Amino acid sequence: MAKKKPASTPEPDDAVIQVRGVTAVIGETPVLAKVSFKAREGQAVKLLGANGAGKTTLLRVLAGTLKPATGTALVGGYPADEKDPSFRALVTALIGPPPLAHNLTLSEHFALMGLSWGLSTEEAIGRGGRVLDAFGVGALASRFPHELSSGQQQMAALALTLTRPADIILLDEPEQRLDADRVGVLAALLEEERDDGATLVVASHSVALREALTGPTVTLTEVRTSHAD
Ligand SMILES: Nc1ncnc2c1ncn2[C@@H]1O[C@H](COP(=O)(O)OP(=O)(O)OP(=O)(O)O)[C@@H](O)[C@H]1O
Questions:
Q1: Ligand 1 centroid from CA 209, angstroms
Q2: Does the interface ipTM go beyond 0.95?
Q3: Per residue in 67-97, is it b (16+ CB within 10 Å) or e — as a string?
Q4: By CB count within 10 A, which of 106, 109, 119, 173 is most buried?
Q5: pTM of the predicted structure, to 2 decimals
Q6: Residue 12 burial (10 A CB sphere; 0-12, 13-18, 19+)
Q7: Closest protein CA for atom 5 of ligand 1
Q8: Is 31 in the pocket of ligand 1 (CB under 6 A)?
Q9: Over pLDDT 70: what percentage of the chain?
Q10: Cα atoms in the Cβ-side hemisphere of radius 13 Å centred on 26
Q11: Where does the UniProt annotation locate this protein (predicted)?
């Protein structure tokens, strides 16, 4: 007869992302209602919720830029903390526009990003350029950021985010300002990353993008604030 496991033995768990009872507060304002979910390697978690439900806030917690008020967020086995280089080495994120230098071309941004994460200049320019090519805007690689339309800026930001290798990809409304065809291209690029073993968390208002991604949906509900009479 099999021995009964002691109660303290942890169950084997292959989750890359484990969010347990996480809430968030900014100042004294609750901004994220309690949420728990897990994601395994090669899954794309789709974050769903009305405006203000806390999707960006949860992504900030996962990116380690906002500490949860309660609960734990383990990402790649680490408590999410942007100050921890081991954690940062695993995670690439696009949450709001990335800081860009006005006097560096997109290719030069890719090279700089690659240099920071152990790629050769050639590899980095190749990886960023591949994303631009997929969007059909490879010629933009030699432009400065201020020479781009708003949709092109979004494609450049996505290319920069995907230039560096990462096990975990966090994206906040990556479809914003992209036309319908480009949303399809984006879905294909993200599915390719997922097929290669990346774990993604994507907040999106695009039904088309959410339907194209393979993985569970996590629906956030707005924080209920009680008003004193
Ligand atoms: N700096 C801040 N100070 C106070 N409250 C904030 C701050 N930033 C965000 N909030 C609040 O936190 C809540 C969650 O915002 P968040 O941006 O995470 O929502 P969201 O689900 O991403 O919304 P959307 O779909 O509109 O992008 C909202 O009620 C918002 O007003």
A1: 22
A2: yes
A3: ebeebebbbbebebbeeeeebbebbbbbbee
A4: 106
A5: 0.93
A6: exposed
A7: 26
A8: yes
A9: 92
A10: 11
A11: Cell membrane
